[in-house]
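Example for tutorial group B:
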């Protein structure tokens, strides 16, 4: 096991709970801005007088910006310290959100979404700050709380959109919520974050960043636009082939670069492959769950024979919000589980909940309470998985690679989310009944089975990791070589609810 040498905190008087709060606000802003546009894509197309395919670029532009910027921002945090990079990201997000509110032009809205896409860099930087500033006794719970806001913020974005943009309201109104969150995050980060401490030496591999960004764009374009372009179209096939070539060249370039953006050996290490695969599949399951539940419960039962005639607000508040609340409550306890059992057993536990939740959605979704319970299980699965993933990544890499390693994991989750939303949309659209113009019930069975399969894949990945650790003789618990005195020093200030005080 690679065990990083923990750098002592640079003398800051910031309380751990206040640091976690500041970082959680930033990560909540990221996931909120990601999700709040999903329910209003139709309104964007109508109010800006563009096609639904053009409106879909509001999601695509955000995702592409995230793929290109996140590794660079993570590396900059490792080299220059996290504070200036986090503050710069939040300034860009505030400016992008102001532009999204002010503009009535699709090109300008896409620029705004690109600026907002820089927010994806907040999560890996937050994990870097926590790893440096907190002792081992508090680290797992802190990472769990911050990581859980990725899922919780998505639910908040959907609920906010349901409250503010129903009944044909201006699609820009929900962005005010995003602006409030971004400004609050910026002010809190400015007041709370400790001075920058650079942990790595060297420079940013800009050529590596450019080639990686191009490869990820070519990979994500067909994933996000395949439904519009056609899966067998020259654009999709050409982008897919180009992604294989460019990413292959990027690996060769990284091997020949003295100070690469991402060490190829780190990407090939089994201990980083496992959380990256798990992040990919968890992201896929998360968005498959969101989209399937939202559309299913809003379907008119008298026309389709299924659904509960829910409004957008009812769908978000009744069927998704309980899972978000559960995620907030469970996150600290999930961190305790990671501390006691290790990341892989925790990941296995969470993924098993996901399999059960998607099985309920696939076969027993005829009653509202069943859908609510299924939503609770799938949200629990994501919360627990997101609690385990940062711990697994942190165990596998040196401290001076924390930012870029978590950036890679963040990209894996983002690709999974894009795949989940694309698969859900494609299956639902392919099953549309020509008479009613609405999807057939079988579509939601298939989407739920895809979510169950993704969760089952996480189970298999976790089991494979446990078997590999057993064969190699590695202990399962995180950072076993961390100094005992850190745990003893932190034990007296432990809170059984939050783990931080």
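The residue assignment follows.
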């Amino acid at each position: 096991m690679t065990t990083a040498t923990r750098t002592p905190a640079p003398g800051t008087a910031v309380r751990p709970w206040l640091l976690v709060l500041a970082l959680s606000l930033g990560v909540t802003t990221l996931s909120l801005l990601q999700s709040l546009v999903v329910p209003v894509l139709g309104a964007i197309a109508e109010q800006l007088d563009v096609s639904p395919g053009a409106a879909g670029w509001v999601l695509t532009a955000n995702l592409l910006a995230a793929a290109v910027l996140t590794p660079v921002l993570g590396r900059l945090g490792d080299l220059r310290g996290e504070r200036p990079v986090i503050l710069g990201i939040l300034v860009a997000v505030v400016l992008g959100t102001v532009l999204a509110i002010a503009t009535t032009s699709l090109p300008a809205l896409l620029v705004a979404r690109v600026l907002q896409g820089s927010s994806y860099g907040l999560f890996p930087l937050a994990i870097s700050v926590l790893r440096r500033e907190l002792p081992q006794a508090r680290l797992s719970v802190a990472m769990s709380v911050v990581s859980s806001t990725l899922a919780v913020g998505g639910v908040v974005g959907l609920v906010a959109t349901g409250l503010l943009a129903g009944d044909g309201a201006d699609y820009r109104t929900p962005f005010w919520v995003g602006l409030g969150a971004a400004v609050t995050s910026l002010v809190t980060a400015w007041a709370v974050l400790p001075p920058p401490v650079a942990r790595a030496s060297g420079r940013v591999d800009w050529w590596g960043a450019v080639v990686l960004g191009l490869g990820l764009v070519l990979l994500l374009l067909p994933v996000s636009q395949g439904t519009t372009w056609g899966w067998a179209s020259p654009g999709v096939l050409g982008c897919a082939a180009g992604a294989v070539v460019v990413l292959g060249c990027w690996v060769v370039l990284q091997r020949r670069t003295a100070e690469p953006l991402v060490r190829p050996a780190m990407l090939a290490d089994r201990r980083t492959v496992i959380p990256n695969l798990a992040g990919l599949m968890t992201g896929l399951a998360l968005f498959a769950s969101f989209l399937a539940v939202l559309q299913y419960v809003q379907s008119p039962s008298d026309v389709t024979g299924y659904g509960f005639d829910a409004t957008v607000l009812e769908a978000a508040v009744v069927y998704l919000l309980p899972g978000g609340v559960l995620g907030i409550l469970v996150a600290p306890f999930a961190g305790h589980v990671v501390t006691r059992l290790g990341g892989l057993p925790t990941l296995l536990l969470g993924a098993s909940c996901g399999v059960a939740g998607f099985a309920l959605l696939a076969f027993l979704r005829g009653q509202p309470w069943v859908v609510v319970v299924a939503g609770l299980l799938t949200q629990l699965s994501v919360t627990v998985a997101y609690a385990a993933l940062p711990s697994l990544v942190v165990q596998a890499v040196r401290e001076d690679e924390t930012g870029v390693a978590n950036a890679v994991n963040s990209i894996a989750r983002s690709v999974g989310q894009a795949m989940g939303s694309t698969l859900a949309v494609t299956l639902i659209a392919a099953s549309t009944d020509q008479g009613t113009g609405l999807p057939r019930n079988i579509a939601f069975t298939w989407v739920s089975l895809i979510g169950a399969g993704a969760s089952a894949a996480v189970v298999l990945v976790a089991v494979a990791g446990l078997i590999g650790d057993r064969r190699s003789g590695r202990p399962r618990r995180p950072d076993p070589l961390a100094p005992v005195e850190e745990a003893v020093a932190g034990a007296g200030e432990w809170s059984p609810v939050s783990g931080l005080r």
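The radius of gyration is 22 Å. Compare this with the pattern of hydrophobic and polar residues in the output above.
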